[in-house]
Each structure stands twice: as C-alpha cells, then as structure tokens.
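To close the chapter, one final illustration. This time we ask the reader to focus less on the individual chains and more on the assembly as a whole: which components sit near each other, and how the overall shape emerges from the parts.
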Amino acid sequence: MSGQHASRPLSWRHRLLRGTLIALVMALMAVLVLLPLAAVFIEALSKGAAAFMDVLAQPETVSAIKLTLLVAVLAVPSNLVFGVAAAWAMTRFEFRGKALLGAFIDLPFSVSPVVAGLVYVLLFGAQGWFGPWLTDHGVTIIFAVPGLVLATVFITLPFVARELISLMQAQGSEEEEAARTLGASGWQMFFRVTLPNIRWALLYGVLLCNARAMGEFGAVSVVSGHIRGLTTTMPLEVEMRYNEYDYMGAFAVASLLGLLALLTLVVKALLEWRYGDELAARATRGH
Amino acid sequence: MARQRRRVLPGFGISLGYALTYLGLIVLLPLAALVWKASALDVDGWLRLLSAPRTLAALKLSFGGALIAALFNAVAGLLVAWVLVRYRFPGRRLIDALVDLPFALPTAVAGIALTAIYAPNGWLGQYLLPLGIKIAYAPAGVLVAMIFVGFPYVVRTLQPVLETLDRDVEEAAESLGATRLQTFVRVIVPALLPTLLTGFALALARAVGEYGSVIFIAGNIPLRSEIAPLLIVQKLEQFDYAGAAALGTVMLGFSLLLLVAIALLQRWSGRWAERGA
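The assembled structure is written out below.
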C-alpha cells in the first residue's frame, strides 16, 4: 500500500480529492458522533459539579445503578455459557439444520427491542400464557426484576455466541483433537486447550454483551412498569427524570452510561490492537 | 477420516442440547406466544388495525424513515470506510474507534443528547430554526436518531472487504485510460455492492425497530412523528394485547424477511469473494 504511494507521486487533483474526503469524514464524525457525546457530559455538568454529585448520591440513582449491575451480573454470564455451548456445537460438529440454528441465534439483533419486551408480557403478564398460573403461585415476572433480566438476556443473546462461532470456525479443531488423542479428558481439553485459545474473544464478546445489557432501554422499558427504586434501571431512570423535566438529573445519570460506553470502546480498541489475531475476523465486528 | 476424527471430540449432545433448549425458551417460545396472541385477532380486527390512520402513519414513518436513514448511512458509510481504509492521516485511529460509539452508547442516552442538540432551543436547533428547519419534535428528528443508531453497520461491513479489494484491477482500469470516476463506478462499486447492500440491510433492520433514541427526539405527535414501536407500547398500556401482538407480528415478519435477505446477500458476497480470489 505504501509502496504504491512511494512509486507514484500523487497528482494535485488526487491530493485535493483526498483532502476533501478526509475533511468530509471529520466533519461528519464531529456532527454525528462527537457532538452527541459532548452534549451528554456538558449538559450533565451544566449546573456545576456539586449538583452533579448530588444527583448521583440520591437514593433513586443509587438503586438504579445497583439494579443495572444486578441485571447485567445475571444476564451476561447466562449468555456467556450459552455462547460457549452454541459455538462448541456449531463449530466442532456437523449436523442438519446448522444454518437455521445460526440464523435463530442472530434473530434477537434484528427484532425490535419493543417486540422483545412485548413477547415476555404476552407470556408472563397477567393476561399471558402463564399469567394465571404465575399469579396463583405468587410469582411475578413482569413489572419485576425477573422480567428485566429475561428481556435483557433476549436482547444480548447473540453477542458472545457470534464472536466465538466466527473465531472457533477459523481456528479449527486440530489442537483439541490432539489433546484428546493424547489422553486428555473432555474438561481437561476444554480448560487447557479451548479456553486459552478463545479467552480474548470471550472477553470481547462479554464486553459488548455487558455494554448492551447495562444500556438496554426499549425491551426493559416494556416489562419494567417503571416502579421507582424497584424496577428502574439506569436507562429507565434517565427517561423518568427527563419526562419529569429534571433534565440535568437525566443527563447526570446518562453521563455514567456515557462513561461506560467510552470505557467499552477503549477496552475494545485495546483488545483489537493487542490481541487482534485472537479475535474473530473484522467482518463480524458489526455489532 | 475427517468424520471419524470429528467424533474424537466430546460434548456434542450436551452442548447442542443446551443451546437448543436455551434458544427455544428465551427466543422461540416467546416469539411463538406473540404470533399466537396475534392470531386471536380475526380478519376484521386486522383490517381495522391496519387501516387505522394512526397505524398507517406510524408504519409509514418507521419503514420510510428507516429506508431514508439506511440510504444516507450507505453513502456516508461508504465514504467513511473508504477514507479509513485507503488514507493515512492524523486521528485516523481515533475516528475508527469512534465509529462504534452508536453501538456502545445506550439508546436512551443518545436520544436525550440528540434532543439537546436539535431541539428548537438546542445547541444546533436554535440556529436551524430561523432557517425554517425543525428537526426535533418533527419527522426529521426521527431520521436523525435512525441515522445515528444505524451509522456503524455499513462502515463495519465494508471495511474488511475494502481492505482485501485487489488494487491491481483498479490500476489496470486506470492504465487502460479509465478516469478515477469511471474506475470507481465501474470497478469498485460493483465489487462492493453485495457488502454495501448487507450493511444497508443491517442498518435498515436496526432503524425500523429502533425505539429508545427516537422517542425522545420525535415529540411523538400522532399521525406525524409517532413510530410503530411506540404504538405497540401504547396499545400495551391500554391493555390492547391482541393489537400490540398484531403490530409486533408485522414488525417481526419484516425482521425475518430482512434476515433472509441478509443471509442471501452474504452468500452472494461470499461467491463474489471466491471469484475474485
């Protein structure tokens, strides 16, 4: 690539085109991406650092942060185990309907978050399939924490599986077969060969899964019922404050989620830079 | 031989069984409940729902808006991917990393931030209003939010393909006397087309179903800036479960269609890559 540039000096027209395109991209990124990001932090601090800290210390904020962490702690490992199992089955064995299984794993990415929340209301809500049975047994799922976890699991289901499927497909199974031939048990093979081979991709998938789990709004909003202090995660707390015209408070809570997004991007870039070879091909980075 | 070696590996039954059960319980059973609930609506009910002006306006805005946003993102995404892959300039890595921000930033946060920018008294909105341009609390606001959430898809699907695109063909075209524009239109765009369409379809799917970022900036004026997912939420709040399920099924059907289209496009681009190699 640099060889070509060196061998053929750029004409002024080419340089002009190049400069114009780069300037266009910079302008586009500034308006489209940087401006909203800046708005989050500047609006959050619009009434000063003291007011900002005040919002963060309020019991509603604290309980929203705790609930968000709880939902993520339950949803992410659940999808992590699924992702490993699905990737193992899909990349190490041949079976009929594999392509269909892959398509179903991708499905949550193209379903509207509102539809994802709706399906659980139809299953577990008072009018739902299992609604009457649940009421009789004193179990509440909708408008309670289990509903939040289920909706989040649905939305974030593909992240780990997709990353692992692409990577394990590319890696092949020679090393695992060698381990088995040399007498390793199934778990020995998994912990000494498979896991070390996929650890960075696993972390990468978990990182993206977690970012989405903590930030999910649409699906969670449908099943939450918006009960302050009980079923409001951070994104829902942002919405409630915003609708109550507490703009600065909404942005203060939003800025924490903005920091999470930035942290996610930094770790993601670090992983890609340091362990790019041990991650799935760039083609699958999409989500 | 290969088949026998495969069997050396353990865990087929348990891993596939677990994956299928989990997927069935979390995704397939709930989606079946959706379709089942929607089927409770008779033909008359469907007709009434789908011919209601509010439903029609919302579907038109969700699908039409998503189409325009995805078209914008296809063009902008091609530009950004091109510049990031082909040119070296200061800040390139930072811009590359920032492309993913719309994926990482929670939609509710994006929604209120975009509203703060484009509201009539907002950062940019106050300068646009005197020019007669109203973005927030109007259909244009819906577009802005849909563009934001769909932006990374085209860039991220195009980048790897652009990186492997064979430059010899371009140089051959140029040495045969093609202008840069001709080379771009006749050589580069056809090679990128399947991938570009895949990215377009992904951005479209995301924008059609988008809720969080849109509802804050849209203003949600009935018949004007109300999106289909919001209508589902409203039907749920009015305990119209069959109506909500029916609208949800329409949206799910569209998602499935796009999923099939994306799978076909990926097969097409795979064939293309093989032929190029």
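Residues 53 and 275 of chain A are 37 Å apart (CA to CA). Residues 1-7, 282-287 of chain A have pLDDT under 50 and may be disordered. With these observations in hand, you are ready for the problems at the end of the chapter.
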